[in-house]
């Protein structure tokens, strides 16, 4: 094992060609990920034809880098434009955008970058040390366990949302209702399509997410163009300090330290929270179908429950951003555990990765650890190198993004609308997705006027279909309606945890009232 690790380090760290692939992949991943609607999966899928002429290690290193960078890049439009670049970013979109409205956009972006890098490094360490053991835990999950896991993920959206629990629950029910549109995996009849064949496949969550957060914000700002909500730039005290410093201090050392000092200090002072978020991300990431999206929501809910200032969540909490971004990037490494150990993709990106391995005549599974140990550890080392590259490339992306908030609203709002349209159309090349985006934007505009949070709606659309499928599968062929959900130890633990969470939430809500 030690010899394989040393060879892997030499193969990756000491190879200029692999570092070149990682850096180019980082720039490519951030460039695509920062555009709403262009996901990490799309970035990796477009990269696959190039891997045909590449060796396995640089090809897989490029895929790992693109995934990590694209997930962080989604935080840029989330913070600057209130358009979640990824579903994981929807968990903390209100927290991040609150800083932009106060002219402090670099604070959440710096925190998201550091949290993503540290979470990615933590996930890589977990992948190296505990990959095989964690995979055994994943093998214990059946449909009942996934049912409770999805319910816990949905409950997290209600827990972290600001405002009354009933309004958050209403938003979640709206999302679940929208998830029922079209055909499902367990029904042969289309539902709520109203004669539109485009709805047979259901409502795509990316146009819905862009409309709920992006287009609704355009509508809200259009009502009052005279109010300048963007006051970006460097705060006055920091600006005066930098202007009187030397050249290196002003243009290199000062900006770097001002961006990274606070986030690294926060993580150092909150070690328990960092470890909790990292483990949540790694554990959820290794479960097929869960991924970074659910890890972000669950970690944010756990962060709010453990915080001394839970009222700040949803209004501008760096703690919530730190914990959520740590979890979603540590989940990326977790998704590779079932893919390498069992050949079961943890998400769409690892499904593409398995295809690349098969294209190289490499079969994922237990044999790959015996026959190709250097390759496996090279993948692990590539994760570490990818996050180092993300720290550098992400810094310049943040500095470039600050100019967006200086654009006058009369110019910026049409540009945001254009991004909303392009992002909605780019997924499937469907004009109907643009209609969905516009409809969801109007819906989100009126719901926000009634103080109904939008985050639970997005998560309801994403998890509603899998939740229904697992529910039907659990009760089909079983005696009774309750026993099948508790007859396995892991299912019983998750089910009791779900009931305790909701009991505690209801009790806390009544106590506050």
UniProtKB/TrEMBL annotation:
DUF112 domain sequence ranges: 20-459
InterPro entries xrefs: DUF112_TM (IPR002823)
Transmembrane helix in keyword set: yes
Origin: domain of life: Bacteria
UniProt-listed Pfam families: TctA (PF01970)
Keywords for this protein: Membrane, Transmembrane, Transmembrane helix
Membrane-spanning residues: 12-36, 56-74, 109-131, 137-161, 168-187, 199-219, 336-359, 379-398, 410-428, 485-507
Protein name: TctA family transporter
